[in-house]
Amino acid sequence: MTPGKAYLSSDEIRPLARRSDLMGAWLVLHCWGVIALAIALFALWPNPATFLLAVVLIGSRQLGLAILMHEAAHSALFKSRRLNDWVGEWLCGWPIMADLHAYRHYHLTHHRFTQTDKDPDLALSQKFPTSHASMRRKFLRDLTGQTGVKQLAGQIAMFIKLAGDHDAIDAAKSQSAQAFKSNTLGRAFPVFIGVALAISLIGTWWWGLAFWLLPYLTWFQFVLRVRNIAEHGAVEQSDNPLQNVRTTHAGPIARTLVAPYYVNYHLEHHMVMHVPCWQLPRMHGLLLTKGLGDRMRTAPNYRAAMMEAGWRRS
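Above: the chain's sequence. Below: its structure in token form.
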């Protein structure tokens, strides 16, 4: 049973779950539009500050593409399954070297077995709470590109290992994040390179490296980790949907740089996973009106979520 049905009626869920092609198109257009505007900002005023801002904004929108692929994986971005799949692959997943179909298989396993031994994401959340020093090392590796280079090398190695072995690929889909990314690297990598080349053609030869590869290897990895920690780090390992996942409140700056497209409403998403992301704030409000606020695991901001996961632990 959908966890949310223990707290919301079908009549309450039904309007929340309505999908909108117009809103889905707007979200995708907005994401790519921010990327274009970030590059345009540097083109108009080229200096270290606009360069850094462009890298951060583009990295945050690469996370945005991942979030919109996640929406498409739940068939929540558009009304049509075919449109969800096409946009989710070509415009959201492949540009960041992820594959919607493999991700869907892996991610639905996560929803089915959240915070249990069968949860494929449990390895990510089991590390928390951790020490201040450990968090600092993790974030430093992310921001200096070490995590991104290591993961990219791992994807390539896994792709070579799994090439042609269909049984191994199927087994890996629900067991390893690295495996679901590596599964279709041969199709995603050309799109990733194509985006970088297009950016270089717009500007100069190094723009693709600076404004696609660099954000991917640095800020994208950092905010991806922050998102994972906020959602499932240091939460209750149980089947209680109000405590085994966290919603983090986000202001305008956090939504711009760390939590695009309502990804911070993760508790609500786990309760009814087919509710479109833009409806999650409304769903959060509905749960509060039912008096569930004190029972829900929430954080007032991302700093507090990081502290809860161990940021200030010695």
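Residues 3-311 form one domain.
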